[in-house]
Every structure is written in C-alpha cells, then in structure tokens.
Amino acid sequence: MSADQHARSGQTQGKTPPEGPLRERDAELDAADHAVSRLCHKFAAGGTEIGEVLLFSGPGGMGKTSLLDQVRRLAGLRPRCTVLFARGGERQRNEPFHVLRQLLQPVLGALSESERNEVFGSWYGIVGPAIGLVPPSDELEPLDPQGVRDGLDFVFTQLAPRLAPLVLVVDDLHWADQESLSWLAAFAVRSRELPVLLVLAYRDEFDYPALTFRQQIESIAKYRHELRRLTPDTVADLVRAELGRSADDAFCRQVWAVTGGIPFDIGALLREVRDQGLEPSEENARELHDLAAAARGETLQHWLDKLGPTTLHFAWACALLGTDIRQPLAATIAGQGPDQADDSVRKLRKQRVLTSQPNGRLEFVHPLIGTSIYLTMPAGTKTAMHGMAAAAIENAGGTLLAASRHLLEVHCEGDDSIVRKLRKAAQEHLAIGAPDAAKRCLERALKEPPDDDVKAEVIYELGCSALLTDPVATVNQLRLALEMDPGLREELRVDATFRLSEALARSGELTEAADVCQEEAERTAAGPGRLRLQAAHFMWAAFQRDEADGPARSQRLKELSESLTGRGSAELAVLAMRAWDLTLRGEPAVHALELADKALVAGRLPTDLGWTGTTWGFELPALIGLTLTYTDELARAEKLFSDAIMEFEVAGWSGAHRGFAYFLMGLVRFRRGFLLEAEDFLRRGLRISERIAPDLPLQWDIVGVLADTLLARGRVDEAWELAEQYRFAPPYHATAMVLPDAPTLYGKLLLARGRRAEAVDELTRVGEQLDGRGWHNTVWASWAGHLAVAVAPDDPDGARKYAETAVDRAREFGTPSAVGAALRLQAAVHEGPRAIELLEEAVAVLGQSPAGHEHAHALVDLGAALRRSGRLTDAEEYLYQAIELAQSCGADGLLARARHELDLSNSRPNRLRTLSKDALSPAEWDVAQLAVQGLPPQRISDRLKVPPSLVHRRLAAVHRKAGTGPEGLAAALGLPEQAPEASDEQTAATEGEAADREG
C-alpha cells in the first residue's frame, strides 16, 4: 500500500472521532468546516499554494479535544482528503520529535523504496533517525538541529502534494516537545505555500522557551478562536439531558457555578451525580461543590475508591507513558501479568479513564484525566516507577532515546550505570539533532553525581553538546571542565581547549580564542596535541581584526612551518596556516601555493582536514580554499567549496557551516566574474545568517562581498542600501576580521557614492592598520589603488605614489589578477599615452587570469582611453571585447558604459553573445595547447598566423573559462605539462592540427 493510500484508508493516528453535537461551538465548527471546504475546493481547482492556519485556544477542559475530533471527522468525510493527527504529551515534552513522529511516522514508514527515494531525496540519513524510521548512525556524530529542520521541510514539501488536500491536526500544542514545536512554528509560516490546513489547539500554558514559537504561530494564523465557557442556559440543557427534564433551575444554576461553565468539568460532575443517584433538586444543590472536586479526580482517595489499588497502579503506569500507551509495557511497569492487565484495562474503560485506538494502543479519554492520575502518585512511587519504565523500555528492545525521559525522573543515588546510560542517551540525542535533550541528560547525570574521575568528562560532553546551538554555554562548561581537579586526560584537554576556542571564535572573540590555545600549548607536552593547539592559535590570530605583533607572529609561524615535513594533520594544518599568512602578506604567490598543495592530496582535502571533521572545524579547510582564491587558482578553490556545500548537506549542517560555504562559493564566483551566480550564493548565505543571529562575523563577510558584487554589476544604490540595512560601516566587528577587508570595501562604497573625502579618511586608516600588520595583499585589500583614485583630484602626485605602491606590491605577489587590477587603478590617476600604456599592460596581464569582471573593466577603461585619444578603430576592438565579457559576467553597469563609449565613437554596438564557460572553441583550444607548451603570445601568433591581439583575446577566454592562470592551465584542461620549448615534431604536429581546423 502506498503512503497516500495508507493515509487515506481511514482516520490515521488517534482514536476514532465520535459523532455528536458540541454545545456553543457552532462558530468554531463552521470556521473549521469552511476552512476544510476552501482547501478541498481550491485544490480541486488546481490550487497548490492554498494553505491556512486555524487555531483554537482556551483553558483545560473547554472542549478543544472534542472540537478537534469533529474537525477530523469533517475532513475525513471529504473525498481524498488526508488527515494526520498528533497530540502533545505532558509527560513527553522531554522526548525529542515526539509530536512529529506521531504525525509523520505512519505515512513515511508506509512508503515503498521508490517513493522513499523521491520523498526523502538525500535527506533520509538526517530525517529518518529523527522521525524514528531508523536508529541513529553507529558513529553517533552530532547533527545540526537546523539541518534536521531543513530536512523535515524538504520531506514534508515532497510529501504534502502526494497527500493533498491535507489537514494536519495537533492537539495540546502547549505540551509539544521543543523540537517538534520549533519545526511547526516555522512550518506555519510556510504552510500557505502548500495545499495544507494546519489546525492547532492549545492552552495558555507554554513553557518560557516555547512562548516565542507560540507568538510566531499566532502571528501567522488567519483564523483564531478562543473557546468560551458555556452559558447557564446551555448548562441547564446539559443537566436536563443527562439527569431528566425535572432538574430544578437552582440545581442547574449551581452546576454552572461550581464548574465555571467548563464542559469537561460539567460532564464529569453530571456523571458523578448520576453514579451517586443524587436527585437534581434545589435541596441537593449544596452537595455539588464537593462532588465537583471529587469528579475532577484531584485526590488519591478519589481514584482509590473509583478504581481500587491494583487498577490504579496500572493507571499510574499508563500516566507515566503519556500518549503512547502499550498495554504490555504498562503491565511490566505495573508488575502485572497479562490477565491482570486485561482486567485493569476493562475497569479503566468502564470508568471512562482509558479508550482504545485503532492501532491497538491505549489512550486517556481526556488529557486532564491522565494529568489527574499522575499527580496522585506518591513521590517515591513516581520515581521508582519511572526507573522501572526506563528498564522495561530497554528490556523490550527500546532505545535510550525513549528511556531517557524516565531516567531524568529517578532518584539521584550516585549510580554509575545511570550516569553511563544518560551519557549514551545524550550521544543518541545529538545524533538525531536534539542538543537540548542531550543537555538535559548530561545535566541530570551531573546531579547523580558521577564519580570524580569522570565528572570532568561529563562536563566536557555537556559543553560540546551546545557547540552548534549555544556558544556561551559551551564556553562556560568547557572552562569548568578544564579547571577541574581531577581533570581531563591529556587528549581530552587538547580537544576541550580547541572546542573552547571554536566557540569563542564563532562568537567573535578571536583574541581570546587565540590566547587560550597558546596558553594550553605552553603547558602541553611536545607532540601532535601541542602542535594542534599551536596551529589553532595561529588560525584564530589570522582572523583577528587587530593584532599587536603581526610581523612577529608571522615570523614564529614561519619558523614552526620550516621545521615540519607535512606528516600528520597537525603539521598539514600549520603548513596551511603559513600558506594563508604568505597570501595576506603579499609575498610571492608561488610560495603560498606550494604550501597549500602540501596540505592537499591530489587536489582534495585529506580526511583529517575535512569540512565536517571535528578535529579542526571548517575554518582550516576554508583558509586553504581562500589561499587558492586569492592566488588565482579559482577553479581549484571552487571545487573545494563545492565539496564543502555537499558535505554539509549530507551531514545535515544547515547553520553557520553551510552559510559560510555559500559565502565562500559566492566569493570565488565573484572573483571569476560570474556575478549573477555570486549574488545567488551570497543571498542564500545571508538568509542563513539572518536566522542564526545578527551581527555575526559570517553576516559581515557576506554583506561585504555582496555589496562588492552589486557594485561590480553597476547597482551602486542597491549596494549602499544593503550596507546601511546591515550596518556595514565603522566600527565593524569588534574583534573579527572580515573577508575581504571590510574598511577597504566600505571605502569603495563611499567612493562609488561620490563621498570622496570620507573615502580618503577610511582608506587611509585601513592602509596604516594593514601596513602595521605587514599585510600587503592588493587583492584581499585593494586600499592603495582606490585611495589613489580618491585623492587624485586634490593631490595628483600623492595619488600616483599610492598607485605605484599598489602596483609594486601586486608585482611582488605575482598573480595576473593582482597585477592587472593594480595597473588599471594606476591608469586611472594618469592621462594620455601613459594611461593607455598602463591599461594595455593591464588588459594583457588580466587576459592570463580567470578574473573575468576585472578583465572586462580594464577593457572598457582601455577602450574609453583610446576613444578619447582619437584611436577609434583600436577602441572599437577593445570595447567589443568588453561588451561580450561584461554581458557574460552580468556586469550591467560596465555593459552600459561600453555601449555608451561605442556610441560616442559613432560605432554600432555588436550583437550580444552568450559566452560558454564550460567548453573552449576550436580556435581557443589551439591557443591553449600552445600556451601550455610555454610559448609566449607572440610565438603563438607566429605559429597560428593570427594577429597578436586575437591571441590575447583567445588566451583571455581560455583562462576565464578554465578558471585558472598560466600555472594551472595544463591541469585544468587535462593536458600534460611540457617544457617551454617544444620539439620540431611537436611543433609541426600542432601547426598541422591547427591548419586542419582553420581549413
């Protein structure tokens, strides 16, 4: 049976809803009926984005459960309408995903293999354990809670159209577990995008952490109904319907008075009156107060009188289990055999305490009854039975995930076995994306308490449990674990220190993160652990905005790296850090690339340095990728960042990790000149950063590059509005460095807005700061070139000095994109032939780089300069190239400017063509083969008998499409490296092939 057939084969979860009238609930029932009708009619008419949220609220006993039963019945009568139902449980609020398992497990578990593949996609390993379809993986690696929620979004988005029109009903939402509630709150916002009616009922009894989710749900609900108490006239009708038409008015009035018009209390009282055989007369009205108290079952004596001790013991076991009562399990907890349990169930049904569900489970007739029975349990009995429940669940083959909520309730007796179980349960909770549940288990384990020799380990585990969700808690717990005596064994001390530094760094406390690693390294014996901490110290220092001894730290890193051979992950990490340090310092890029290559295996990250590894975190592989990004190895960097996105998706990490991966991919696409794709990745990352927390370093990174991308596209006003929206302006982040340099980007924004004096001040300040650190990379922070442009109108000589400094530093670094961009800015502060000379060199150099947008910018500048000098034919050639390249980049501002320059020269802009970045044309391939052999452009021009300018154009296209400069061209195209001078036979063969293609 398929999932939709399974769901439509009758009412799904829960007891069969009874039929019958509800008093004074006509408005609510009409609203529900109309909502179901709208859903079904709109879906039948082809609608898909037709979802609504319907809320019912009120105190306990107001009839919400009966009302939802009627809603389910109404929906179930509609052809092909699917109803999914779940109920929050007062005892199961600490059981992660309890409500969602009730909703989704029956339909998802009924999927065939092919249906499962379609519905889950790649999310089965993430969502399956959370829903309870499969156990957590053996490795018990923590899952990002946001990743689990994203996976649930995907699965439900695939499932809902299969079951549509779908009515999703949740009762007692105030008792929903935190994991389910957070997803339902987010889903309520998205429900309008699907053919789903979400019907929720709750009391005003949410725990403090859940209030935000309640407010979120209420803010989105179009229809909200608060159930009112019944009027005296309606209560009188109910009394007479139950006890006879002769009931006195005074008696009826007193029923209303003692029950407050609450339907549940009225029904319970009337049953008590009937059982007592009390005449509904005025003289008996005074007895109703005591009978009402007894009817609510508020005392132990009431339930003993009603059920007897044996049956009450079974009822207590059921109350412990909550909404998922299996008779054999309840019998085990109560210590009853099958026959005795059957007898208990019969009595409880007769007394309207329990009812049966279609799936064979038992359920309390009303949640208030279960609460009443649970509250009558003596404290000692309660904790003892919780312990028996945990043991019974384990003995029946259940997991610690299910048993742990009972372990939380047992007496603290210093039991080592309880501590072990709670620690294992915490691991299982983390492995399904429920860190809050893990935290509860570990906090309870500390209360047991654990033995002194493991107490520090439990605190360490408690700190690690919050690493993805609560960095502040992680910092506090890990500090405590490190300070304890007896403390952690050495390998755990190293790991605890590193994780502490991670939490500090991701909270923006970069200086403190670097310091704690350095301090612990000094007291750690020589070996891999110490080296790991030293590498972490250098890593966090490199991310700092300010640093007192930048050059000295760089020297220490150099000395450390020179003593290593690259064996083991710690040594590779140090080499990677040195590569990034060289990149920031602007030293020859070839040296940085050499070290970065040592940290890779066949161009890929080694397992120990993987994106999802816990030894190093994602920051270290990010620095390797950034080194490649700023040394023109953009295709290789893009491959690393693509791997990051894939690994984070597979691991279910949808928070800061994936947001940072989107940022990195957006950055490398920006550097390649694929501006539309860069903007898409950056906006995806920005959405993730917004749901984490404001003003995180991640958000600053994304906003800075996104603003730069918008500038490159010619959307200056939009870039400025973005910066203002996210406060991307001084003083920036207090401690964290922004990638790329934030003050430089802000100076560019000011310059683009015409606020030249402010740009000069900002760029001057950042230049002094970066020079003090010895960071001279002109790609990561192009402050000198832009400062030259900013001061040129007032100080031409000073502008030329700044521009010359930028070019000198770019030549020292040695990458084509660095040199070309610096030359283009230098040309902006010169005029006439000198400007043209500089731009011609910039265009030629950028033609060997993968930086498409920067090349297009230089082409436009050169074409404009040639046009102003009267060299119209030459100008046209470069402007035509600029138009083609700018259009492929999505640089609308450059495109408009190039077309305007052509118009000024009375030339007609040629037809725009789409540039393929995935394949080379035959002519481009000929040029690429000769370039790989080491032939310079002039020799290629001679061999192929084409003009040098055409060779430069084709070489530029080759580098842009391959995503690399000359050094990486052979590998990118799959060609063998050859000596600079090819043999005569090779030359003849190449020329012959080229002649054949030309022919």
TrEMBL record:
What top-level branch of life does the organism fall under?
Answer: Bacteria
**Coiled coil feature spans:** none
The UniProt keywords, alphabetically, are: ATP-binding, Nucleotide-binding
* Classification via SUPFAM superfamilies: C-terminal effector domain of the bipartite response regulators (SSF46894), P-loop containing nucleoside triphosphate hydrolases (SSF52540), TPR-like (SSF48452)
Known Pfam families for this protein?
AAA_16, TPR_16
Cell membrane keyword on record: no
Taking every annotated instance into account, which residue ranges of this chain make up the domain Orc1-like AAA ATPase? 35-199
Instruction: Give GO terms: molecular function aspect only.
Output: ATP binding
**Which residue stretches belong to region Disordered?**
1-23, 961-999
InterPro entries, per the entry: AAA_16, P-loop_NTPase, Sig_transdc_resp-reg_C-effctor, TPR-like_helical_dom_sf, TPR_rpt, WH-like_DNA-bd_sf
PANTHER family recorded: TESTICULAR SOLUBLE ADENYLYL CYCLASE, TRANSCRIPTIONAL ACTIVATOR DOMAIN
Q: What's the protein name?
A: ATP-binding protein
Organism in which the protein naturally occurs:
Kitasatospora paranensis
